[in-house]
Design brief:
Structural class: alpha+beta
Number of helices: 1
Oligomer: single chain
Mean pLDDT: 75
Strand content: 15-25%
Radius of gyration: 32 Å
Low-confidence stretches: 3-15, 24-29, 139-162
Number of strands: 12
Order of helices and strands: EEEEEEEEEEEEH
Length: 165
């Protein structure tokens, strides 16, 4: 039994800066993504994508190269980045992989680092930790109760001394 083989003849040429591949079907024509060179037969260099490879890849996870045709990152975006091509920073108030973590309480209302969540000038007085998300209230409460207790002891001593004299 003989098998049929279908052959598709494609002409490749440049139109301006774009590589265009046109099958011998007059109904189809379009820009071919991910190729460059005088005859549009070279794939994009690592880190580039698009028609004629004119765009730089975004911030792909683990420094992987993006798709030479779409610019999409196969394993997703590095921490602090989002979008199909990983070129958009996390929105204000978020950080980390997939922009899935909320920023802590940064001093002066500063924005946290979109990658690590660290606050550039430190934490608001009530908060501590690398990402300024731990309440420091327990330390503050124990310190204030110590001061209040100290004042009460001094008052008792003063009253006792004044009754003696």
């Amino acid at each position: 039994m003989a098998s049929a083989v279908q052959v598709c003849v494609v002409t490749v040429h440049r139109v301006g800066i774009f590589c265009v591949r046109r099958p011998r079907d007059p109904a189809w024509s379009g820009v071919t993504q991910g190729y460059s060179g005088n005859f549009c037969n070279e794939g994009c260099s690592k880190g580039l994508y698009g028609s004629s490879c004119q765009y730089r890849c975004g911030n792909c996870k683990s420094n992987e190269s993006c798709s030479s045709s779409t610019g999409a990152c196969p394993a997703g975006c590095s921490a602090g980045w989002r979008g199909a091509t990983c070129k958009r920073r996390c929105p204000q108030g978020t950080y980390g992989e997939g922009c899935g973590r909320q920023c802590g309480y940064c001093l002066n209302g500063d924005e946290c680092d979109t990658v690590s969540g660290a606050c550039p000038a430190g934490c608001q007085p009530e908060f501590s930790g690398k990402e300024c998300q731990q309440r420091a209230a327990a330390i503050k409460d124990s310190a204030s109760s110590f001061k209040t207790g100290s004042v009460a002891i001094y008052a008792v001593i003063i009253v006792a001394v004044s009754k003696i004299f």
